[in-house]
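fyi for ur records
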Amino acid sequence: MIVKMCGMCSLQDMDAALDCRPDYVGYIFAPGRRRTISADLAREMTKRLGGRIPAVGVFLDQEPEEILELLRTEVIQIAQLHGSESEEMIRFLQRESGRAVWKAFRIRQKEDLVAAKESSADLILLDAGTGEGKSFDWSLLSDFDRSFLLAGGLGPDNIRQAAAQVHPFGIDLSSGIETDRAKDPEKMKKVMEIVRSL
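which gave:
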């Protein structure tokens, strides 16, 4: 099971990530979010990573050129789309960048899984919302047969349950590895210990 730790906001966050080595780290570029960072800070954090962990940029209905610029300049290696982006936009970004494009889907009922299953994204992410730290009803995934990242309300307390119940390809965490709204190196380490023990 792969692990993406999202919402990295500082060089200290990067040091904590390098210490525990998740499979991916994520930067929020969607405007108006608590964890949104600038391209300049993202560039500094990617330098800190030194190619050891791929960086995923998270976008919400933003212009494709903004996304492509960050991919082409190697600030990020993967684009994750969290809004109402079309299939045409997904394919355009894949074609123009030659990079993987992930797409997040908000799951509230079984019907929401249809678009997720049929998406041309390289990897899909199933979430309750857009970063509110809440889980959706995992029983909806009982017969879902596409690889996905599970997101929403995940942390050290429920990763084992998630792995046993829905068998995700990977997990995406942000608020679940924070204390007082800041990344917590101990929680980050704990998550990786749990995942490696599964």
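The mean pLDDT is 95. thats all i got for now
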